[in-house]
């Protein structure tokens, strides 16, 4: 009888604990739901705010509005007024719906560049004739191999050799006519007007130095590549191995 009574008491305790745990869970869920829908009125953009635009100009232009945002969606540095941003400008473009946060405003706008330069690389430009730029088929985004037509500093032997196997073209600039004078084997000189075009490449420091040095000590030429083009550096071609 005593054992049966103990079991009944234990069952009652377990049932009570279960009921208490369910109650606490429901209360917690209700609290979380209430917190989710608890909002704060913060400044949000209702029109595009351009880089360099002052917070005062954006406000005067009707580009800001106080709007409710759930507490669990607030961003760090959110603003409820423009007071702390007085005199500052947008560092980047801010689009409709974005919260106004302190980190997107500062003393001066970030200089925008039309070139999409890959991280860790730099942009340099070279001036090429139409044949050297594949008759105008090289465009921004093209992949090219860079070749050098030059001569050996010691022997004076002319050569053609791949300088860089694969390079990205960032931009194609203006074309201008340039006078070019060539001398044939008899010593006769011919001057002609050849159009030259500026092409801008994305390179790391070492490759940029190679291209700049080569363009000042020889003639560069591009070869337009596809994803299937097979390219690799090699010893190049001279008069000694041209027909081998």
TrEMBL record:
CDD domains on file: SAF_CpaB_FlgA_like
Chain ranges of the SAF domain: 40-106
SMART domains for this protein: SAF
InterPro entries, per the entry: Pilus_assmbl_Flp-typ_CpaB, RcpC_dom, SAF
Name of the protein described by the UniProt record: Pilus assembly protein CpaB
Organism, as annotated: Nocardioides ginsengisegetis
